[in-house]
Amino acid sequence: MAEPLIPLAKEAGLPICWAQEEGVLDDEAQEDGAQASPGIGMEREDRLALIVAIARAVIAHEEELTRLDQAIGDGDHGVNMRRGFEAVLHEADALAELGTAAALEAIGHLLVNRIGGAAGPLYGTLALSMARQGANAQTLHDWILAFGQAIEDVKRRGKSEGGQKTLLDVFVPVHAVLVEKGAEAFVQLARIAEEAAEATRPMRALRGRAAFLGDRSVGHVDPGARSASLILGVVGRVLCGES
Q: What is the CATH number of domain 40-239?
């Protein structure tokens, strides 16, 4: 891109694609002294850029994800993720025409149908749940809540929790930072996600095929955590105007 698609607003520290409208707080929040969350608006071109960037990043890291999964899994995470996001990339123009929630729903169905393995249902659940929870989202705060609720659905689907060496070990800490810092977190999102994925290296896997390895799973980054860090890292970079 010749210039940042979604640069940070200099004074507010917010991506300018998000309309900085005054948010609405309930009485309890106002009494607590909370600040209103900015209203959100995303144009078709912004959605297209985000969808394409995520898909290309996952596809470009197929070999890395494969190597990670060969160490502690079935060895197919890279291939499966590439297949799923090639389908997303192929439909990117049509997806961008939809509203954000509708696009997430369509992406969720694509991922469930195309990725396969354990990752397909988990990533599909995340997208489908965010679409459902975010159907009436008006503010950044609404979308952060939707992300948190979607993470809970992923936990239920995978019968897992954070700390068990899965993609949740990226989703959970990233969500915690978003809750704490709101829009300010996006400039740190890629670093936070990458560090969270790396933090799975000393963990002993308790879910998935890697769990059968016991202590031999220690010393390897979880492939699902790594793919999650790639996706969230791109979200942070694109929303902050990086190419």
A: 1.25.40.340
